[in-house]
Amino acid sequence: MLSIGTIVLTVEDIARAGDFWRSALGYVNRGEPSDDWLILDPPGKADWASPGASLALSVTGYPQHYPPRIHLDLYAEDQAAEVRRLRALGAREVDWHDYPEDADWIVLEDTEGNRFCVVDTGPYPGSPAR
Prior knowledge:
It holds the Pfam family Glyoxalase_6. It comes from Microbacterium gallinarum. This is VOC family protein. By secondary structure, the protein is an alpha/beta fold. The protein is built from two helices and eight strands; from the N terminus they run βαββββαβββ. The radius of gyration is 16 Å and the shape is globular.
């Protein structure tokens, strides 16, 4: 059985991106970063089999592609507060006019232009309302 172990994001400034994602997710460096590679783990992750996907940052020298073919969905109980917090860390709202009326997500990008969504975690589909 496979599971997602690490999600890799392309960045230009590894220190800036590392600062953003450590603050955004509360993740910690797995080891010392190199000039072009950094892996961030959930706090307390002891080994490969421990729960929680890691986030790797890779300097490749290639520009970001728009629209990106993959992005992260970050779940938030208080979406508005998380969007404010992430913007204070350097995230930017993406000017995107294709939101449906019932959208439960907001599109942001990190300090390196990697897009992600902050999803309001209202009632889980198929479960009773909170």
